[in-house]
């Protein structure tokens, strides 16, 4: 069961108790906030040594620090030093935005060394792998996207940025408004390119329910619901 499901069932989990203690709030109140979706506690059970952190209404402001490699510089020891400095400086969470080197290895090592929640942007890795395998972003398949999301979740990632709000309707609105600047979101730009090339809806919106499944995995769904090829 998820923390939200436990909270809705009236259970006060150890994670809620710890966050309530840190925030100096009533644990029953906090459980109600979690049940209502007003507070989240990013806490993947596979992330060992994690100190739960509450984020949301009625709690202290939280600070996130972004780290990660690039195609120009990918040195694991430097990322671990960034992680150490960020946590010592008081970061409540960190995001591994790596786009260079052995992304899986770097993410897993960061998780092993982080006591704060770790987040990612899965579309980055999905696109990089598609380019390395087939030479083009537009050859990314829907299955590839969800496989990377599942892989990162299994590694212990506590939270993810998924660009579900970028829909075909939103793109039409941008066109109608006469936008003169580029999309500043890297993940948004990736998905926009894919959507325009294939004349299709954003898979993260079209198959949003797949993001919420614990079983079966998205790849096990029928191809009529989630095509395996782009």
Descriptive tags:
disordered C terminus; alpha/beta; two-stranded antiparallel ribbon; four-stranded parallel β-sheet; 230 residues
Would you kindly provide a written description of the structure presented here, covering whatever features stand out?
It contains 11 helices and 6 strands. With 230 residues, the chain is an alpha/beta fold. The strands form 2 sheets. It has a 4-stranded parallel sheet with strand order 3-4-5-6, with helices on one face. A two-stranded antiparallel sheet has the order 1-2. Helix 4 links the parallel strand 3 and strand 4. Helix 4 packs parallel to helix 5. It starts with a helix and ends in a 19-residue tail after the last helix.
Topology:
Blueprint: H1 3-8, H2 14-23, H3 27-36, E1 39-40, E2 55-56, E3 64-67, H4 76-88, E4 93-96, H5 103-113, E5 118-120, H6 122-134, H7 142-155, E6 159-160, H8 168-177, H9 186-198, H10 203-206, H11 208-211
Parallel strand pairs: 3-4, 4-5, 5-6
Antiparallel strand pairs: 1-2
């Amino acid at each position: 069961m998820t923390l939200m499901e436990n909270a809705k069932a009236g259970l006060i989990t150890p994670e809620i108790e710890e966050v309530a203690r840190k925030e100096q709030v009533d644990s029953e109140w906090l459980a109600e906030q979690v049940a209502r979706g007003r507070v989240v506690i990013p806490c993947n059970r596979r992330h060992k040594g994690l100190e739960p952190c509450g984020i949301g209404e009625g709690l202290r402001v939280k600070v996130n620090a972004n780290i990660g490699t690039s195609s120009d510089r990918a040195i694991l020891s430097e990322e671990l030093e960034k992680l150490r400095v960020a946590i010592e400086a008081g970061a409540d969470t960190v995001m591994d935005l790596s786009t260079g080197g052995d992304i899986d290895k770097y993410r897993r090592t960061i998780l092993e060394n982080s006591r704060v929640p770790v987040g990612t942007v899965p579309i980055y890795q999905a696109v990089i792998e598609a380019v390395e395998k087939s030479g083009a972003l537009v050859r990314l398949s829907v299955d590839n996207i969800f496989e990377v999301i599942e892989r990162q979740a299994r590694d212990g990632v506590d939270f993810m940025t998924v660009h579900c709000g970028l829909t075909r309707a939103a793109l039409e609105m941008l066109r109608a408004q006469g936008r003169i600047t580029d999309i500043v979101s890297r993940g948004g730009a990736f998905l926009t390119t894919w959507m325009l090339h294939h004349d299709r809806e954003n898979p993260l919106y079209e198959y949003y329910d797949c993001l919420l499944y614990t079983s079966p995995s998205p790849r096990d769904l029928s191809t009529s619901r989630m095509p395996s090829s782009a």
